[in-house]
Amino acid sequence: MNVVRKTEALRTRGRVGLVPTMGAFHEGHLSLMRAARAECDTVVVSLFVNPAQFGERDDLERYPRDEERDARLAAEAGVDILFAPTAQEMYPDGFATWVDVDEDGGEAAARPGHFRGVATVCLKLFNIVRPDVAYFGQKDAQQAAVLRRMVRDLNLGVQLRVLPTVRDADGLALSSRNAYLSARERETALALPRALEAGRTAADPVAATRAALNGLEPEYVEILTLGDATVLAAAARVGSTRLIDNVLLEGAIA
Ligand code: AMP
């Protein structure tokens, strides 16, 4: 596997799969890499903690970083190229062009400017890597829907694949941010997947989820229509850590 930092040093061949990430790899990331490995000739994983998608109150500074470990895990998953650009490479001095995303509810309302940062960096990554297919996780279902719409709206011609959320045995969705949780907070965090599961089959999914978020500070619980899918999505805080999760109510995300 090659670690590449410069756009012009990227060399791909055949069908190209891209897995955009912010690093601190876990099984969720690795499941996307393995799918790309099975379906593509060249697998590129991007590793870039994108400042543009963090708000002022967000955790950019403390976001977990371990490139050496990530490079080892990516190589083991059969990745050909780890594209790990510098912030200067992605946002050179004088950078002034952004993708403006119209999106309401969920993460869009809770984190103003978040999807603008996500869409901009993904458009840049698509232009740099020129993938045939890009892989995303259902864990961030609204993000996947925003990106799918961007691909359609801006005629990007990239196929998007959205793969199921990978969870720990007890149901907690894997997330790089789980590393922030103490043992006790992790126990509290379990209420999030459990509440969504209770909400999934309830007559009033939002009320049932809210009622079961024991000990968690909910930011939102909403039913979101994302393309052909309807999902029950929630964000909540455990101490200083923000967690999101969702379950499918109807339709399909893939
Ligand atoms: P991140 O590094 O958190 O930006 O995530 C990179 C990609 O991995 C995104 O497409 C996420 O949706 C996906 N991802 C993150 N967590 C999971 C998970 N638990 N299961 C599946 N995909 C995930």
Q: What's the topology here?
A:
Layout: E1 2-4, E2 16-21, H1 27-39, E3 42-47, H2 67-76, E4 81-83, H3 87-90, H4 106-110, H5 114-129, E5 133-137, H6 141-153, E6 159-163, H7 183-189, H8 191-200, H9 205-211, E7 217-226, E8 229-238, E9 241-250
Parallel strand pairs: 1-4, 2-3, 2-5, 3-4, 5-6
Antiparallel strand pairs: 7-8, 8-9
Helix pairs in contact: 5-6, 8-9
The structure holds adenosine monophosphate (AMP).
Residues 21-22, 28-29, 31-32, 136-137, 139-140, 165-166, 173-176 line the site of adenosine monophosphate.
Structure report:
The protein has 254 residues and is an alpha/beta fold. It has 2 domains: 2-163, Rossmann fold (3-Layer(aba) Sandwich), CATH 3.40.50; 176-250, Pantoate--beta-alanine Ligase, Chain: A,domain 2 (2-Layer Sandwich). 33% of the residues lie in helices and 23% in strands. The protein has helices spanning 27-39, 67-76, 87-90, 106-110, 114-129, 141-153, 183-189, 191-200, 205-211, and strands at 2-4, 16-21, 42-47, 81-83, 133-137, 159-163, 217-226, 229-238, 241-250. The strands form 2 sheets. Strands 1-4-3-2-5-6 form a 6-stranded parallel sheet, sandwiched between helices. Helix 6 links the parallel strand 5 and strand 6. The radius of gyration is 18 Å and the shape is globular. The mean pLDDT is 96. The structure holds adenosine monophosphate. Residues 21-22, 28-29, 31-32, 136-137, 139-140, 165-166, 173-176 line the site of adenosine monophosphate.
